[in-house]
Amino acid sequence: MTIMARKFKADMLAGIMVKVTYNFIHTGKYNSKLMQKRFKKQMDSPNPYNRAFVAMTGRDKYDMSFITKDSLKNQFKSDLITPLPEQIDNGETEIHVFYAKKMGEKYLERYNKYFKNPIIHEHDMRHEELLGVYPKEWCELVEKICI
Questions:
Q1: Which residue range is the domain that position 70 belongs to?
Q2: How far is CA 118 from CA 59, 60, 67, 121, in A?
Q3: Three-class DSSP category at 14
């Protein structure tokens, strides 16, 4: 895929993400009835993962009015088009990765592609579940790594 095609695709995807997330960030509600219904169902679930994931955004604790559509779009787009070198290693830093197995093997492959000799802390969890649902255990692991 050419650079122009990648940028065009990234622009389209970022535009979709802004349409889906912008209103939620500012009001706590989705414009789409389907998304709002799905969100309500997830929040009513007894599973703490969904509520923890939303709480991690800080939307209900902090004023998010400074987030503009342009800044949101630029964030999504830059994540899609910014190239990363492979086998990153400066010789002085250990790379620790909290790998959530339920996200899939492709993420483990990605960590090993972009980081040279990453230290993988594997958990049979979903994305950010350790931080959002088990913050005490997350802190303990970070502390153990830092000591």
A1: 3-81
A2: 32, 35, 33, 9
A3: helix
